[in-house]
Amino acid sequence: MMQRKYNLRSGSPYPYGAKAGEEGVNFSISSRHATHVELLLYAAADSEQPFQEIVLQKNKNHTFFSWHVFVEELPAGVWYGWRIDGPQYARESGLRFDREKLLLDPWARAVSDKLWNRAAACRPGDNSHCAMRAAVVDDSYDWEGDVPLAIRSEKAIIYELHVGGFTSHPSSGVRHPGKFAGLIEKIPYLQQLGITHVELLPVMAFDEQDIPPHSYELGLKNYWGYSTHSFFSPHPGYCLTPEQGAHIAEFRDLVKALHKAGIGVIMDVVFNHTAEAGADGPVINFKGITGNSFYLTDKFDKRIFLDYTGCGNTVNANHPLVTNFIISCLEYWVREMHVDGFRFDLASALARGEDGRVLQDPPLVWGIELSDQLAKTKLIAEAWDATGLYQVGNFPGYRWGEWNGMYRDCIRRFLRGDQGMISEVATRLCGSSDLYQQQNRLPISGVNFITCHDGFTLYDLFSYNDKHNAANGENNRDGCNNNLSYNCGAEGETRNQAILTLRRRQSKNAYSMLLLSLGVPMLLAGNEFLHSQQGNNNCYCQDNELSWLDWDLCRRNADMLRFVQRMIQLRKRHPSLQRRNFLSGEATEGHGLPDISWHGAEAGQQPDWQNPAARTLAYTLAAVEEGEADLYVVLNMADHKQTMQLPLIAGKQWCLAVDTALNSPKDIIAPKDQKPLGKYHYHVEARSVVVLESTAKLQNEHENPSARMMTGLLNKISGIRIFDQPEI
Fold first, then answer.
1. pTM for the model
2. FRET partner for 345 with CA separation of 20 to 30 A, picked from 378, 577, 627, 725?
3. Burial, 507: exposed, middle or buried (Cβ in 10 Å; 0-12, 13-18, 19+)?
4. Is residue 241 over pLDDT 50?
5. Has residue 90 got a pLDDT over 60?
6. Comparing C-alpha atoms, which of 321, 404, 400 is closest to residue 366?
7. Active-site position among 160, 207, 250, 345
8. Does the active-site annotation cover 369?
9. Residue 486 lies in a domain
10. Domain tally for the chain?
11. Catalytic annotation on 382?
12. In 10 A of CB 726, how many CB atoms?
């Protein structure tokens, strides 16, 4: 059927891309400086030769910047590519037209890399036999009434995962390992864990061959996916039938299934650079289509790319055409794919103007914030770039959340045992008001995390002092050197039971602090059952068992998994941990207690804020809803036991909820199994976290005079305002 020559019409400039209808397919592409445009049609994703080549006529198929043609009776399932030529100006122009290169449609809804050869796209000459192709897709789909979820950010618990690595290991037990469909099979696990959102590492189509040559020769590939080339297409490697162009349906199946389980979908998106790299990189699409407008280039020599991303190029995000492209793309994923939010990789690069300077009010960032179609969409910025621009607490806009790198560094240092940390720790636990409150932003502006995909896993954070990245083929030069880690006494694997016990306890300490903090917590997949990467803190190229989650660890470390599940439950049953506004230190309405009260070893005293050696912090967090328990929390990162006097609250008594120094199942206790302590002091072991929950005191119990006195002292404690004390 596809060997015939199809009849043509002039077509329409809108919409961009390939749009199938009852009478055929409309193709449109935007190229401001193009002088010659050809559309090549292929019968299959791996067809080396086109069955029809269509030369577009300027007087018939050209409107403003758009080149377009309508192919009558052409069915969905056809594959295609473009050839574009243009003027060859002097070197200062930066135009890179090459009519020998087969180009991907930037608006393609489905692409195939089955024939792809990156090296051929880097050198001169025809690469049509080994280039990527785009598919004409059938966009029909039964959503069954699905819509994006509307989970409030203060109630969110984000779980960062890699679609491939989550189920690729043989132990995953899924029928479709490493695919969107495989992740669907693991939804019951996500429900049992208790998270509210998955944050998917890049799932827009990316170039798996985009790694250093010596790493590629070792059989490695770009695994994480931070090398996007097709922003409207799901990654073909995660699809069961990419050769059939089923990308959209398979991704929609995932979103719909997650939504049915009450779980939102946040996409990690990479608009700061593309897979085309620098001047020596491949010609895939933008280089050969948009001329010199899509990337930041040198003011005097447009052949030179400005690189603020460490990946060879930087997207010229605030150029009007590029801004429109990016916002249209985001709106498409929300409108047509029902995603619930986006995390923007190296988002500070998006705040740079055409000369590379930082803009006070970048049009793209504000355009995203003010888009009606994105009004209910979560926006999260990685508020830095690769050349030192650091905007945590100062990213443009008000609705944006930020990956709180200052939270990560502070809590890592505290867990490591650094001195002089308790004041900052208190501020971070309370939502980082020093970063957000003066700008009229909220605790939910901070996405709190201790580990993420980039860096050590949580278990490795307490198992290695140094990175061990030799497997990446770069002589251990890649990856961050400042890990703020502590190996607990031995580098890497050990049989020393005391060290192993401490590592497990530290992992529980980390989860406790994270889930007790105001703001939006983000957990890294696999940390809940102590996944290790053997000290590799940059597994971007390791599509193998080093990165894949070993699900046998769920059984071997069942106590850790149980602890994390119970900590998530604890957070969810305490609205006081899900506050939308900052703490004040003032009495709460209808309660009489300050919303937060800080304690030293004696309940009526303050922590030793000015002592650099102090590594213990205790506080009471008052309930905010009827029926909710108050919380008393002690974080003891000192090397010795601390005896803490418990604050007294009239008519209430304390029950042990969490003690990370105890063995499972005593380390975390559900309310129905809790028992009153019946004492006024608690011994908090070295390097441990203790959480108590209040419960009503039995009426036949009598309160002694000292208890009444301590209650009065507690009720008089107000907010902390001194300079070297925490900001709340």
1. 0.95
2. 577
3. buried
4. yes
5. no
6. 400
7. 345
8. no
9. no
10. 3
11. yes
12. 26
